[in-house]
What does this fold into?
Amino acid sequence: MTRAFRRHRFARALLLALVAGALTLPAMAQESVVHFDPAQTKITFTLDDILHTVRGAFTLKSGEVRFDRQTGAASGALVIDAASGDSGNHTRDKKMHKDILQTDRYPEITFVAQRVMGTVPASGAAQIQVAGIFRIHGADHPLTLTLPVETAGSRVKTTTSFEVPYVAWGMKDPSTFILRVGKTVKIDIAAVGQIASPK
It folds into this structure.
């Protein structure tokens, strides 16, 4: 193999690498990542029973969602600390963790993002949908969330609400002969995070 031929092959390989890099840059530039702040994110739940309405809260453990602005493909998850569930009543919460959520076996409640539908604005407000999988009590359930989002610089705020038919999803019904409770829990999320393009 002559020196000239080796130089030619090296130059050709370098040119191909540069072209491939140039072609992948636009696709990479379309991806954004949102890091949600657990301290500024509120997750509340509401459960009706025959006497009154039970309200409580969970804590966000972590949250990061990546999405391609061009294709809508998404990944990442919001991870809720199941054991943090608190309704303000120790006896009721102990029963919730032991008998219903079984948090010793299933310590996390997770929403895994798969696709973003709609456009997240660089600045201002819009409404999008995020399709994914809601994982609770060891089982996966398809779920599509509707989220009004508001961005200002790198800061993003969003809210969403959805219902969890926990009894239909295989969790224990805490109702007794005397006390009847709803079989669906309403979840409300108000999240705050930072949005950026990956480096």
Summary: The chain has a mean pLDDT of 86. The chain has one domain: 30-196. The two ends are 40 Å apart (CA to CA).
